[in-house]
Amino acid sequence: MDFNGASAIVTGAASGIGAAVARQLAAAGATVVVADLQADKGEALAKEIGGVFVSVDVTDTEQIKAAVRRASELGPLRVLVNSAGIGWAQRTIGRDGEVDSAHDLDAFRKVIAINLVGSFDAIRVAATEMSRLEPTESGERGAIVNIASVAAFDGQIGQAAYSASKGGLVGLTLPVARDLSAAAIRLNTVAPGLIDTPIYDFGGDAEAFKAKLGESVLFPKRLGQPEELASMVLECLRNPYMNGETVRVDGGIRMPPK
Question: What would the pLDDT profile of 89-118 be if each residue is shown by its tens digit?
Fold first, then answer.
């Protein structure tokens, strides 16, 4: 996949992994639509990389459609990276034996709606636009990458909602790749481990906390950098023989129960 002259959409691009992906796509020649709800950070990043910010709530189909239309104005839409997502931690049942203290069902629905349904919605809308394009020299019309998590495989205590949403992304990878093959569109999923993103930046002991987390990584014993994760995303986009696969990028970690 040659990114020069093409447009790309990255959801959740205002910070963390999404921002690193957006920067690397822009450096490779794509015009990137920074699709996020964080307007200040999103607009600043879009200005930095020569892209465009579009406010997108991935649970709103019309906003996804608007991002696709805007991308198509900038060049043929060849790339979608689904990085938008939220976390949630709560045990399935409470300690007091009462249903009212069990896992918040609305919170479970929200995590699934954003992380899983929102990603699938973006896929179906963006892929429809890609299917109208002429194939590139490599014979493909587009490429898509979902950002899942090792929680899809090694979900910890309290991660029922998050793991279910990320496991859903892993589960849809092959069947959707099979669906999209008729249109010469590839789909892969990348599952990060412990990546150094703003989620860990809190209080004065954040660095010590991150160093402690890094000790559980097989090698190297540290948190991964967003740029390292973004590098794998770009390889999945670039490599025309990479399709229908989920790749862990985690330093060999296998998460313990808690």
Answer: 999 999 999 999 999 999 999 999 999 999
Q: Give tens-digit pLDDT for 16-53.
A: 999 999 999 999 999 999 999 999 999 999 999 999 99
**Does 123 score more than 90 pLDDT?**
yes
Average pLDDT over residues 161-190: 98
Residue 243 has pLDDT above 70, yes or no: yes
Half-sphere exposure (Cβ direction) of 147: Cα atoms closer than 13 Å: 29
Domain spans of the chain, in order of start: 7-199+225-249
Classified as helix, coil or strand, 136 is coil
> Which residue reads 């822009």 in tokens?
26
Give the Cα separation of 233 and 17 in Å (integer): 10
Give dist(CA 72, CA 65) in Å, integer.
11
SS3 assignment, position 81: strand
State the angle between helix axes of 16-27 and 226-238 in degrees (0 to 180), rounded to the nearest 10.
50
Q: Are 79 and 30 in contact (CB under 8 A)?
A: yes
Mean pLDDT of the chain: 96
Active site positions, annotated: 162
With respect to CATH, is domain 7-199+225-249 assigned 3.40.50.720? yes
